[in-house]
Amino acid sequence: MLFPTLLLAGIAAAAPGALDKRQTAADICSSGTPYCCQLDVLGVADVTCVDPPGNRANVTDFQDTCAETGTSAGCCVLGDVLTLALICSTPQ
């Protein structure tokens, strides 16, 4: 009788808690992939781009996360080419 009680308690303890609502990259950048970049060249090319660290709940979080590292948030169509991203726009 003790085993079913312990089994039920173990299953209840292992159940996941509430999940946070996070936006996907497609929600934040309708055209392209989100990147944090150091230098923007006329919106055509961004230099030294990396994936944004941490979780992004919305566009403001994405921009703030990039700003914390001294970079600018951008939505780039072609990216991850030797830390260069092409055809970038400001996230909306």
UniProtKB/TrEMBL annotation:
It comes from the Eukaryota. Pfam families: Hydrophobin_2 (PF06766). InterPro entries: Class_II_hydrophobin, Class_II_Hydrophobin_sf. GO terms for cellular component: extracellular region. The keyword Disulfide bond applies. Signal peptide: none annotated. Belongs to the cerato-ulmin hydrophobin family. This is Cerato-ulmin hydrophobin family, Hydrophobin superfamily. The lineage of its organism: Eukaryota, Fungi, Dikarya, Ascomycota, Pezizomycotina.
